[in-house]
Design a protein that fits this description.
The protein is α/β, with parallel strands linked by helices and 429 residues long. It has a domain of 57 residues. It has twelve helices and 18 strands. A hairpin with a 4-residue loop joins strand 15 and strand 16. Helix 11 runs parallel beside helix 12. It is globular, with a radius of gyration of 22 Å. It starts with a strand and ends with a strand. 43% of the residues are buried.
């Protein structure tokens, strides 16, 4: 059977479809990069914002229009909106989040011994063709942030055992198919609330224990961590970066730089605590890139509160980040709050915040002009029969562009950074 996989949303959704890819291949099926070639499609959906919900519905409709009548949909949007999902064209099976780990076995209608004789990892064809492997370490969340619907969609926090995670990393690192250098060069560790890993396991290990085990028991060249809540970390955590294989990049969601807004969001931090954490990270990890998430137009956010948030974000000198216009999610506490902000004001504030982050991103990138950095090449576009234009990432999450006549996809090479691009840097290999 020919199978097409796609997703909307976070890195955890990407990790899950990579796991489905391995399981379908282990069962003898073929993955295709074009939906028109598929006998079956699986879409992993998202509900974190209204835009993500819209994108999920649109992607399902696109698959149906391509002529696929056997369509399985899963993920957060499907879990919270099963009746609406069932009415979309082409949908033949709904798999809620609580059952998604057994999705492949459910589709194939028989238990599959995926762990008996594992196949080597191959990149997912099409838009999901990646050099990096996303590994799911944890799912669910026990936080009660008042704007977030993820707890309802994903359930309580659940940690995967160290042994299972390391097995997945070894499998992912073993091969990416028929390439000159087939080893996967970068592992991205993901979870809904990754920093809580281990709190539900016997003896209550911590995320630091998991990372150290990965470094000790695998030879993966690069390990990158996905989003971490700031209250899960302390200064000692950053000592892990003595191992140069850990990418010098931290994504620490702030959401607001105003203490009063953070309190209404039920975020377990304050601007002061957040600033102290960043100081500690920058002291112990020279050149670290720190990105963040910000919400504008949260209920009750006055002009004064927004200005406090904007000024704090300016003072943090983030490398970049995502700015979200507040989107009321039914079932969350914030959706019932008074003083909902007008949509026009939300958008205006979003643009101001984006401009601030763009300025600090430019400031950070300029520091590396003239330096030599190792780059993992992810994308290649043919310029001519003699050359390619490549795009890749440094360990500190700089997007680098360069040209070469050599085949460099999925390799790490040093690059002399020579200038800036709209969202990254350029250089000479």
């Amino acid at each position: 059977m020919k199978i097409f996989l796609d997703m909307v949303g976070c890195r955890l959704n990407q990790a899950e479809i990579e796991q489905y890819a391995q399981q379908f291949r282990a069962a003898g099926h073929i993955l295709v990069g074009k939906v028109q070639e598929a006998d079956l499609a699986v879409i992993n959906t998202c509900t974190v914002t209204a835009a993500a919900e819209s994108d999920s519905r649109q992607k399902i409709r696109q698959v149906a229009r391509a002529g696929v009548s056997n369509l399985t949909v899963t993920g957060c949007w499907v879990t919270l909106n099963p009746a609406e999902a069932a009415l979309l064209p082409g949908v033949s099976r709904l798999v809620p989040n609580q059952l998604k780990d057994s999705l492949v076995s459910e589709i194939l209608q028989e238990p599959q011994p995926f762990d008996i004789e594992p196949t080597k990892r191959s990149a997912i064809p099409g838009l999901r063709f990646r050099t990096r492997a996303f590994i799911k370490a944890q799912d669910g969340c026990d936080n009660q942030c008042t704007f977030c619907i993820t707890t309802a969609a994903r359930g309580a926090g659940r940690s995967r055992p160290i042994e299972a995670i390391i097995d997945d990393i070894r499998l992912a690192a073993s091969s990416t198919g028929n390439l000159p250098d087939p080893q996967t060069k970068e592992i991205v560790l993901t979870g809904v609330h990754l920093g809580s890993w281990g709190t539900d396991l016997p003896h209550k290990p911590g995320l630091r224990d998991l990372i150290q085990a990965i470094l000790d028991d695998t030879s993966v060249p690069r390990l990158r961590l996905s989003s971490l809540e700031p209250w899960d970390l302390d200064e000692s955590f950053f000592q892990l970066w003595k191992d140069p294989r850990i990418c010098r990049h931290l994504h620490l969601p702030l959401q607001s730089g105003c203490a009063a807004t953070l309190k209404r969001m039920a975020r377990k931090t304050t601007p002061q605590k957040f600033a102290s954490l960043l100081d500690a990270a920058r002291t112990q990890i020279p050149g670290v890139a720190i990105t963040t998430d910000i919400i504008t137009g949260f209920p009750g956010e006055s002009e004064e509160e927004f200005n406090q948030s904007l000024e704090f974000v300016q003072s943090m000198h983030f490398t970049g980040g995502h700015v979200f216009i507040y989107s009321a999610r039914p079932g969350t506490a914030a959706a019932t709050y008074p003083d909902q902000i007008a949509q026009k004001a939300r958008k205006q504030r979003s643009q101001q915040m984006r401009t601030t982050l763009e300025a600090s991103s430019l400031e950070y990138r300029m520091k590396f002009v003239g330096q030599r950095l190792p780059v993992l090449w992810e994308n290649a576009t043919a310029l001519s029969p003699e050359g390619w234009e490549y795009s890749g990432l440094t360990g500190n999450y700089l997007r680098v562009s360069a040209t070469s006549a050599s085949h460099l996809w999925n390799t790490i090479t040093p690059v002399q950074i020579t200038g800036l691009t709209a969202e990254g840097v350029c250089g000479i290999i």
